Amino acid sequence: MSQPFAVPPSSPASAAPSGRRTYLLVDGENIDATLGMNVLNRRPNPEERPRWDRISTFAQKVWGQDVVPLFFLNATSGQMPMSFVQALLAMGYRPIPLAGSGTEKVVDVGIQRTLDAIADRDGDVLLASHDGDFLPQMEALLGGDRKVGLLAFREFVNARFTELTHRGLEMFDLETDADAFTTLLPRVRIIPLEEFDPLRYL
Q1: pTM (2 decimals)?
Q2: Helix ranges, the chain (H)
Q3: Within its chain, how far is the Cα of 26 from the centroid?
Q4: For residue 53, what are the β-bridge partners?
Q5: What is the pLDDT of residues 49-107, one digit of tens each?
Q6: Do 174 and 181 meet the contact criterion of CB atoms below 8 Å apart?
Q7: Which of 89, 75, 62 is nearest to 29 (CA)?
Q8: Residues 15-45, buried b or exposed e (16+ Cβ, 10 A)?
Q9: How far apart are the first and last CA of the chain?
Q10: How far apart are CA 202 and CA 181, in angstroms?
């Protein structure tokens, strides 16, 4: 099981939100697997993994409000990576270690249930994942005054998410929008001219 357990030291995110808030739901395994299999074609080195503190900071800034950062973990083995959990806590995240029968996609089910629960509350949603399993829940959140966003590598997002942008889904890129990485990733993707920064390639 690939798990994104390398975290550099960082400052805490907001842990005591007031007023309207952004719920940041992080599917860490999906982000790590996509980075390894699709971007790097190998297991990421610690310095190549996302800076989770930058992601929570981006979630605060993107809509200008406090963030509730939730990081979902698969703990079906009965063990937790305590150093990683402690690092998440230090950054203001709420780790959610879930266990199941071994055949369940426990992280997916946990995120789906959380998205369903948010539908009955005020608050905006930023989901960090590429997984199409969350499409029904994300689509159900659209259509009102709620802000709903997806944070991922744009070129690897399930295509149906892109179809939801005309209904208000906002798409953000982990590298170029959230600045979640300290090294330039070897991505080959279409770059809108207004986003092209030649200094990144020199």
Answers
A1: 0.85
A2: 28-34, 52-62, 82-90, 106-118, 135-141, 159-163
A3: 4
A4: none
A5: 999 999 999 999 999 999 999 999 999 888 888 999 999 999 999 999 999 877 789 99
A6: yes
A7: 75
A8: eebeeebbbbbbbbbbbbbbbbeebeeeebe
A9: 36
A10: 17
What is the length of the chain? 202
**CA geometry: angle 37, 32, 35, nearest 5 deg:** 40
Per-residue DSSP letters for 2-30? ---------PPPP-S--SSEEEEEEEHHH
- For residue 167 the two structure tokens come to 């209904």
Paired residues of 163 in beta bridges: none
Residue tagged 């973990």 (tokens) = 73
Task: Classify domain 21-189 by CATH number.
Answer: 3.40.50.1010
Count of other CB atoms within 10 angstroms of residue 142: 16
The 10 Å Cβ neighbour count of residue 198 is 6
